[in-house]
Every structure is written in structure tokens, then in C-alpha cells.
Amino acid sequence: xxxxxxxxxxxxxxxxxxxxxxxxxxxxxxxxxxxxxxxxxxxxxxxxxxxxxxxxxxxxxxxxxxxxxxxxxxxxxxxxxxxxxxxxxxxxxxxxxxxxxxxxxxxxxxxxxxxxxxxxxxxxxxxxxxxxxxxxxxxxxxxxxxxxxxxxxxxxxxxxxxxxxxxxxxxxxxxxxxxxxxxxxxxxxxxxxxxxxxxxxxxxxxxxxxxxxxxxxxxxxxxxxxxxxxxxxxxxxxxxxxxxxxxxxxxxxxxxxxxxxxxxxxxxxxxxxxxxxxxxxxxxxxxxxxxxxxxxxxxxxxxxxxxxxxxxxxxxxxxxxxxxxxxxxxxxxxxxxxxxxxxxxxxxxxxxxxxxxxxxxxxxxxxxxxxxxxxxxxxxxxxxxxxxxxxxxxxxxxxxxxxxxxxxxxxxxxxxxxx
Length: 419
Known about the structure:
Blueprint: E1 23-30, E2 33-39, E3 43-45, E4 50-55, E5 65-76, E6 87-100, E7 116-118, E8 134-136, E9 151-155, E10 165-177, H1 184-188, E11 234-246, E12 252-260, E13 266-267, E14 276-277, E15 284-286, E16 301-308, E17 314-322, E18 327-333, E19 339-343, E20 345-347, E21 360-363, E22 365-366, E23 374-375, E24 381-388, E25 393-396, E26 399-405
Parallel strand pairs: 9-12
Antiparallel strand pairs: 1-2, 2-11, 3-11, 4-10, 5-9, 5-11, 6-7, 6-8, 6-10, 12-26, 13-14, 15-25, 16-24, 17-22, 17-23, 17-26, 18-19, 18-24, 20-21
């Protein structure tokens, strides 16, 4: 199995054993904006267990539309939100793909490569890596994904769907049951010494210096729980809400870019500096190197940077970072040092779902005034991620999502209302 936020995670060629269609709960329409709430297929978790599932052909709005937002959370059979200290939502991701209409098999699980074409975002990581349209983790409940008017993410355009194919969507869910865990944070960070693994999901031995990450916590692995702890098996779902509007010429389309601080792009040749090969790893470790220095926790900062270029420039209309526990913020800079967007984690301060103490429960977002933040063609961007290194963190992520429009809206046309 490949890794959805990791290398090859969202590959559409993977075999999924558990297939089921999601369930629509309700559809609501008010004025221009429509919304629908769905449930993923059920997944079961018991203390210490892990699910890593790819659900193909999920329920999703159809037709030529503009996506406005996508939000998700883990719930039980009664629809109650599950707190992160019970079930840690490592990540979820939604991927677009195209499926052959005349496929000789009805089996849609990624196992028959010839039936699929990628419908990934605009980049910039290598093929099958970070190609999702939407994707978050523990911060899902308090992170806005709304695309401001009159912009939208265009999908379902018949002119863009390859002949003989139809547009479909896949949902990746990665959740860890930490009830009774010896070390809840260690389980959430997939630390090697807490999991019952010595090989990755392909059966390859893990490197002796591998301290933790996605290669430790794949589907059906287990994290160590306290001796004698017992807990019931739970039937859970990812409940997701989609908002959209019908496509019209008044909507300004945006491109989705997901930038990764682990990316180390290399020029393919000296004559074309805009042609690069990317190497996004999606996760990295932060070594706890601050305790012996006598510095305060405020001074214990691990900073990681990389330099990147988009295929083309445009106007930034939305931005947000994705960080794990220990994150203290991220900034995307332009070539001249100007701030394109800064995004800070929100840490919980209570027990209720969406406010769990010690967890990243949200990320601040950027909504620049249209036209005020522009990335030039060929401009080199600098992505900076900051984590606390007061202690070691394994398998952290340093992603930055931006929505970019090629053009600005016509000022003579009325804006849409969110309602």
C-alpha cells in the first residue's frame, strides 16, 4: 500500500480489500450554494488498532460544478463526534480520478490500472504524491476550506473528462485508536518502538535508524496499550460535508497547489531552469535537541525550508498549512521576501471534540483581498516550517495548500453570496 500523504500514498493503482459506497445523509440548498453531508463506509477500531483505507467511487456531487468547501470529522454510529484522544485522525484525503465507462469489470478498487486516469491537482509533487483536492488531519474541525466568491474549484467539466471515462472520487482515511495507549502522542506519531512492526506494508525490513512515521502505522498494525486495558470495538465513519454551486461563466476557477517542505526539486537540465523533478517525501522527523542547551521552550525551534516554483503564477485567494503536534507555524514567502501567507496551529484547551488539550485542532487560514497577493511566472518561493524541538517528533508533516487564480473577477459582475 502506498501512502496518501506520503510517497505514492494516493496512487490509484492500489488494491483495496474493503469496498463500499458512502452514504448520503442529507442534501441542502439555499440560494446559490448547495451542500450535502455523507458518511464514508464504516470502519471498526479497537484500542491500539489502525485503519488505513482507500474507498473508491464515494458519493460526491455530480455535474459541472464549482466546489466551495469540504469538511470532515470522525463520528460514531449515532453521529457523535469522536475526540482525538480516543481516535486520532492522522489524515483524510479526497482524490479525483477518471474511470473507464466500458470497463469489463465492475470492480472499482484501483487494482486494474488500465481502467484509471489520474485527475490530480495542479501539483507540484511527483506523480501519485499529494495529488488530493482536499486533505487535512487532526485540525479538520476548526480549519476553514471555503473558497471565497466569486472563485471556485471547477470539476465535472465535460470538456476536461477524457473520452470514454467518467469522473469519480476516492477517499483515503487514516485513523488510530489511542484508547488505553501507553503513549497517546507516540501512537499518533507512529513511533517505531510502540508498534508491532519490523517491516513496512510491502514486507521490506525497516531501516535500523527509522524512528517512526507512516511505514509503522499502516492498515491493521497495532500500537501498544497498557497491560490489562480493555475497550469495546467501535464502528466509526468519516462524516464529510461538501458545498458547491452550479458552474457558470461568472465563476473564476482556481488551481490547487500542495507544497511540501521536504521537496527538493532538481533542475532536469541547465538550459531550462523551469523544468524540475520533484522529490516530495511528505513527512520528516524533528529531533529533540534543545533540552541540553538550557534554552527555554520558547527558544526551542526547528526550522526547515525549501525553495519551490509553480508551473505558472497567479493570484492567491486562499492559503493554509498542515502541521502535526509540535508545530508552531509556517510561512510561504515570495522571492523578494514578502509574506504570501502565514498559517499558525490552534491547540485545544479542553476535552470536547474540536478542543482537545494538546492536539492541533485547527490551522489559521489566509484570505487575501483579490489581486493583493500575486505569484509571478517563474518566481522562486520559499516555504518555511517551524516545529518545537523541545522533544523528538516523528513523522511530522510540513505541507502548504494554496488556491491560485489565473485571472481576477470582472468587477462589473455581481459576486455570489455564500448563502
